[in-house]
Backbone:
């Protein structure tokens, strides 16, 4: 009995095996298929596409997807390119280590439609269509606008308004003269978006709704578009020309959109980044806009808001003017600001008095020029025989800057004068008839004479004790941009200063260096021995643009330390363009620009502006707020035909800095 059952069970398995084999024999083509391709937007088979396969041996194989989106050839471990033969669009570039079952490709389509209400001049109208992967708005700002923004949890929800993701890739074009348009072919991977704007700021922004049944190589009619928003804000400064501030910025404190249009407002705000990044940053509280100092500032393209609170920052510290306005969907809103709002309430004048003394012995300084500056006041006087001065009729409640320029008889040019600035905070009680007497201590120059400068350089600068090969890549800069790239010294120059009250002085006694050893990551190891205990500032300079420093306290006389000057921890900027114009605001070409680095006793680095008045620096340390290193990045121009320039590169800068010769 058992043998009969076993025989029947065996026969049943045999028949099942024959059935399975016969099924595969009936569909031999499917058995040979390796991978299928579908359109990511629709899930439909990506049929009749061109497939280029680059195998591990570097050989290219050309094939096509069949009617079901399959290819017969294996792509395991190969690089592939998928393109559409009609539109000539590249739909996918991928590398595959393991044979995937399915790959998604972009959908080749284009759009047509028409415009009304944007004006008759088609050249002043831009149609932007977003067709790439959807990303967060702030990620778009970081990638496209090069904004170095600090991330925070609600960065994509300004004013508690969630912003929908925005397309990573955009195509821009103008309509026909009759307002109609047909876009170029697009490789669409995520639901597309459209943003239309004219030169007057009238705009519309929408997510494009695709038909349920959509096929590749189709031209889709997306209808007629009319402007949704486009209000203009005018800011009129009612201030006398002599009282105009040196700079005035406008920012956004808060914003409440019209309730019924919150969703549309969020879409419009996000897409402003495509064509109007400054406006987008302003409304997202990511930046400010400068205002015209003479006349009316007109800013087009404001989004409608039930309540928009603006603030205005002028030159007087602590004084901020605020205005809250309603922004309609179209039209003009005007704000008028007067002198009192921008410069503050001026109280009764009071006298400002003080004494100027030398830092090494406390002796009074005779004949020093004292300049008191608190906008719009700028007054100056000269110290008397006992070093004292009085400046009448100042506003004691305002912050101020006191600049002192004093002669120094013991020094030879350029060390025959001492200059220093002091910041004064305004007094809360502005009714005082007389300010408290203030003493201003000015330090001796870092070096007294050229002879002592040379002695100091030889004694305290080490540039000949380098060991090892100084060839490494600086962090954050292009690969291969190293110390031998032309902008760097073959050996770093290391200098030591003593620190007293935040000021750099030449150290007493000789500073000894034993080794300067470059490490693989770009840091420098330095062995230093000082004569006296105290706090020291140690700087290593490769160029005015690449340097490292550290502050160290030596707790005992004749103490020795092995220090690490870290370049690897510094943030670097890939490119910095400096644009210089002459008095006629034309490009200042072929002028010599001197850059003074962090090491003060090194000759300035000289670069020449090109025909556009530009100087391009490929790799540069980001500026620091370190008080003892605040003098670096000083630049100067002295060209008898085009003018002079003495300035500092600002702490907050972008990729381009502009300066005008005086």
Residues:
């Amino acid at each position: 009995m058992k043998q009969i059952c076993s025989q029947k069970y065996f026969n049943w398995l045999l028949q099942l095996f024959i059935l399975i084999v016969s099924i595969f024999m009936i569909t031999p083509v499917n058995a040979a298929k390796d991978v299928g391709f579908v359109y990511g937007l629709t899930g439909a088979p990506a049929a009749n596409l061109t497939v280029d396969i680059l195998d591990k041996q570097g050989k290219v194989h050309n094939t096509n997807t069949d009617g079901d989106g399959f290819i017969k050839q294996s792509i395991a471990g190969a690089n592939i390119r998928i393109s559409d033969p009609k539109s000539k669009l590249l739909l996918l570039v991928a590398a595959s280590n393991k044979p995937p079952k399915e790959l998604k490709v972009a959908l080749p389509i284009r759009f047509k439609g028409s415009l009304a209400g944007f004006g008759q001049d088609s050249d002043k109208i831009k149609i932007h269509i977003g067709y790439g992967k959807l990303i967060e708005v702030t990620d778009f700002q970081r990638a496209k606008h090069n904004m170095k923004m600090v991330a925070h949890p609600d960065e994509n929800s300004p004013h508690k308004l969630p912003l929908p993701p925005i397309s990573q890739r955009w195509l821009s074009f103008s309509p026909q003269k009759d307002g109609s348009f047909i876009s170029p072919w697009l490789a669409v991977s995520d639901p597309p978006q459209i943003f239309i704007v004219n030169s007057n700021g009238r705009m519309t922004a929408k997510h494009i709704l695709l038909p349920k049944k959509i096929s590749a190589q189709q031209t889709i009619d997306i209808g007629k578009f009319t402007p949704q928003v486009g209000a203009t804000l005018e800011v009129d400064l009612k201030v006398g020309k002599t009282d105009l501030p040196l700079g005035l910025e406008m920012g956004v404190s808060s914003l409440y959109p019209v309730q019924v249009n919150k969703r549309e407002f969020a879409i419009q705000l996000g897409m402003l980044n495509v064509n109007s990044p400054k406006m987008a940053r302003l409304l997202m509280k990511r930046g400010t806009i400068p205002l015209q100092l003479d006349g009316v500032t007109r800013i087009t393209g404001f989004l409608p808001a039930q309540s928009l609170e603006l603030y205005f920052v002028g030159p007087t510290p602590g004084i901020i003017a605020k205005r809250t306005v309603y922004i309609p969907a179209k039209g003009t809103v005007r704000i008028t600001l007067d002198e009192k709002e921008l410069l503050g309430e001026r109280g009764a004048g009071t006298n400002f008095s003080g004494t100027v003394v030398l830092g090494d012995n406390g002796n009074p300084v005779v004949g020093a020029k004292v300049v008191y500056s608190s906008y719009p006041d700028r007054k100056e006087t000269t110290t008397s025989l006992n070093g004292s001065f009085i400046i009448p009729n100042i506003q004691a409640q305002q912050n101020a800057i006191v600049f002192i320029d004093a002669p120094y008889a013991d020094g030879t040019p350029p060390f025959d004068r001492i200059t220093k600035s002091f910041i004064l905070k305004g007094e809360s009680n502005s009714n005082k008839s007389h300010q408290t007497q203030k003493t201003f201590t000015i330090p001796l120059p870092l070096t007294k004479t050229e002879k002592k400068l040379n002695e100091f350089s030889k004694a305290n600068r080490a540039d000949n004790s380098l060991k090892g090969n100084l060839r490494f890549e600086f962090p954050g800069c292009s690969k291969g941009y190293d110390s031998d790239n032309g902008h760097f010294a073959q050996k770093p120059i290391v200098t030591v200063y003593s620190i007293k009250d935040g000021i750099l002085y030449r150290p007493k006694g000789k500073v000894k260096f034993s080794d300067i050893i470059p490490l693989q990551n770009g840091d420098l190891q330095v062995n230093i021995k000082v004569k006296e205990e105290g706090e020291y500032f140690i700087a290593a300079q490769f160029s005015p643009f690449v340097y490292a420093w550290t502050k160290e306290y030596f707790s005992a006389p004749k103490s020795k330390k092995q220090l690490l000057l870290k370049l690897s921890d510094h943030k670097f900027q890939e490119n910095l363009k400096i644009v210089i114009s002459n008095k006629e605001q034309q490009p200042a070409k072929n002028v010599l620009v001197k850059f003074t680095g962090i090491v003060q006793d090194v000759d300035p680095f000289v670069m020449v502006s090109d025909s556009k008045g530009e100087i391009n620096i490929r790799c540069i340390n980001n500026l620091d707020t370190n008080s003892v290193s605040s003098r670096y990045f000083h630049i100067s121009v002295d060209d008898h035909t085009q003018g002079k320039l003495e300035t500092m590169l600002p702490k907050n800068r972008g990729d381009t800095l502009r300066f005008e010769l005086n």
In short: The longest strand covers residues 107-115. The helical segments are 2-26, 28-32, 137-144, 262-275, 277-283, 339-343, 450-460. The chain has a mean pLDDT of 77. The radius of gyration is 35 Å.
